[in-house]
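This part of the workshop introduces the protein records we will be handling. A record pairs a protein's sequence with a compact description of its fold. As an example, a complete record with its sequence and its structure tokens follows.

_____
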Amino acid sequence: MLDISAIAQARERIGKFINDTPMVSSSLLNHWLGHEIFFKLECMQKVGAFKVRGACNAVSRLVEDNQNPKHIVANSSGNHSQAVAWASQQFNLPATIYMPHYSSAIKIQATASYGAEINLCETRNEADEKVKQAAEEKGTFWLPPYNHEYIIAGQGTAAYDALRAVDDIDAIFAPCGGGGLLSGTLVAARGLSPHTQVIGVEPMNANDAAESLRKNAIQRLEDVPDTLADGAMTMSVGPLTFEYLKLLDGFYEIEESFIVYWTQWLNHLLKVRIEPTCAMSMEAVSRWLKTQKTKKRVMVMISGGNMDQHTMSKIWSRNCLDQIPE
């Protein structure tokens, strides 16, 4: 498995490409909850999400190792598609992205704007199958959304940066789609701050990771999950990321109503656009803090800020701001 040196090397490799995203907190939220909450704002990263870290590390490694990529392909319903398109563009490499047609419209548009060819598929399974076929061509490299050590190492640089910026963190929370961010976060935390708990969060409506952990075997969803957290709509975790997820200190499944609630509140309190996928982590934080007997310092990975009008309208269809967090 990866160790902290892989994360540090990835950070050095991608440093000239990425943004040094800020750490912020809300004094009002801290007052209400009685604890200190820090937010790593990857919504202010290139392409608006942490995914660019993994994609950039992967493409850089391919070039660095003289693997001579001629074409990059990827499959994703969300931010990974944009990240691979952007990273490929930095190295003047053509990219083709296979996306299910129900992907966020703004993410499809953004991916195309970074120069990638978009291949829309009827289902996620179809996208997965097409990218496998495309990867068989000589000189073509497939960068999966999460199940690859180059991707995991790159994603881990977000927590690596955050834990070097803020000391003495008791727990760090991150959303789980395929598990790449959580895997990298775990490696970074174990290397930099071994006492820090690493806790995963996913939608109850897309709880394949939680089911996999309960059954100690990877469980795949039968249908596309119905959740506002589109960044966590993966059908299953990967065999590589699953081994890291087994080492987590906790895992929470969050109902859609709480995803809506915290998306509204975090957008209001932090004054930045935050996706439902990462906003849901705050409900896990709230539940975890209620079990603690002393004041805690908690970090939340704000993984992205790309939200289209359709999702936005659903989030704000009713007002949740009249109920103060507790």
